[in-house]
Specification:
By secondary structure, the chain is mostly helical. It contains 14 helices and no strands.
Length: about 400
């Protein structure tokens, strides 16, 4: 891969792709925050917000395994372009409904579900295309820059979403999302993405190809353990993310301003972590980075869970370290998938894992409020943090995880 002629200009290709993705991801964060804020202002219902979150996750969970098969069969470039254009169409319909003032909650849920279909194809296609564009030695750096884009969008999205929603309305917000998706798809037109070289063309059924992707994952014992650990991590982390505002409002007796402050510093932590990965490009084993990231995040969350209620400033500082730890395991984990499996399987691997890992996350989201009410929001931080730390330590003692980078499957 390193010596491929197509890799010579990989930096210029990624500059074009990242420019389009920055607009697309930022506009998506703006739209996502605005929808949540609009639902909150219109209904004041936590249940309505939960339904909106489920509407965004459910298509990716249900369609993920099927989407992966077609991502591996189709051109990944045109799959991403098609997914972006479909998201643009769905957002345009939502904007039109808001403009006509005919939005009902049930119709908004359906439109959000349709919009999520595009994400079910785009995210795995994007991740599986990266090894075709960048040399293997640069994949951690690429993952770091992707984290930077995500963190910038996470920091700016809520601010811009509130400004546009309150001053221009939801129709304008959704048109911004249309524009972002169009910019992303247009930028991809100027990039050549190599085709995946396959031993033979697939003439099998979709279910056969899906099963083949699952077997490829199952045969790699080290990645199997890592993926299982990520599923468990998602189950415990998503409820913490969901109740993060309650930690500020209820436990620390903070204000709405302080909630936004916590979200902002978390995004800053993500940004620092992404910059660290992209500049440092560490040569140590990726499994070691994953272990450090999980253990570090777990300890920080656990400490947050035992802070006295008068230590809000300390909580804010620790939130920066929460954000910093996340790219240390998400970035290397993505790179391990990209390097441990052949390119012809990556669409199925990413889509299937995304589907499986989001299901427990959705379950965790459904019960987050009830759990926090019963045991206390701070105990959720403590218990979840300890579980993450234990998982991080446990991975040290799994030989197949430690031997992952000695050979690729």
């Amino acid at each position: 891969m390193e010596t491929s002629m197509g890799m010579n200009n990989w930096k210029s290709k990624f500059a074009v792709i990242w420019t389009g993705q920055l607009f697309s991801i930022l506009s998506s964060y703006i739209a996502q925050f605005s929808v949540v804020l609009w639902i909150g202002m219109e209904t004041g219902s936590a249940t309505a917000l939960a339904y909106a979150a489920i509407a965004g996750l459910l298509p990716q969970i249900l369609l993920g395994p099927f989407a992966g098969v077609f991502i591996d069969r189709w051109s990944r470039k045109w799959t991403m372009i098609g997914a972006d254009l479909f998201v643009a169409f769905c957002s345009a319909v939502i904007a039109f409904c808001f403009y006509l003032n005919v939005v009902e909650m049930w119709s908004l849920y359906i439109l959000l579900m349709f919009r999520s279909v595009g994400s079910a194809f785009h995210a795995p296609a994007m991740k599986s295309a990266i090894p075709l564009l960048a040399p293997q030695s640069a994949l951690v750096r690429v993952a770091g820059i992707n984290e930077i884009i995500q963190s910038i969008s996470m920091i700016c999205g809520p601010i811009l979403g509130a400004v546009f929603l309150l001053n221009f309305g939801m129709s304008t917000v959704m048109l911004l999302d249309v524009l972002g998706a169009l910019i992303a798809s247009t930028s991809l037109l100027f990039v050549s993405i190599p085709s995946v070289v396959k031993a033979s063309k697939s003439t099998k059924s979709v279910l056969y190809d899906m099963k083949e992707g699952a077997l490829v994952i199952w045969r790699n014992r080290g990645m199997r353990w890592l993926m299982l650990s990520e599923v468990v991590v998602n189950f415990f982390v998503m409820p913490i993310v969901a109740v993060m505002p309650l930690m500020t409002l209820q436990y620390f007796k903070g204000s709405a301003y302080q909630v936004s402050l916590v979200e902002g510093v978390y995004g800053i932590g993500l940004l620092i972590g992404g910059v660290l990965l992209s500049i440092w490009n560490p040569k140590i084993r990726k499994s070691t980075l994953i272990i450090c990231g999980l253990f570090g995040l777990g300890i920080v969350l656990a400490v947050c869970g035992v802070l006295p209620s008068t230590y809000f400033t300390v909580f804010v500082v620790l939130t920066i370290f929460q954000g910093l730890a996340v790219p240390l395991f998400t970035g290397p984990f993505t790179v391990l998938i990209q390097t441990q499996f052949k390119s012809e399987y990556l669409g199925r691997v990413f889509a299937l894992f995304g589907s499986v890992s989001q299901l427990p996350a959705m379950i965790g989201l459904l019960f987050a409020g009830f759990i926090a009410d019963d045991i206390g929001v701070e105990k959720l931080f403590l218990f979840g943090g300890l579980v993450l730390a234990i998982i991080g330590i446990g991975l040290i003692f799994i030989p197949s995880v430690q031997q992952l980078e000695q050979k690729a499957s």
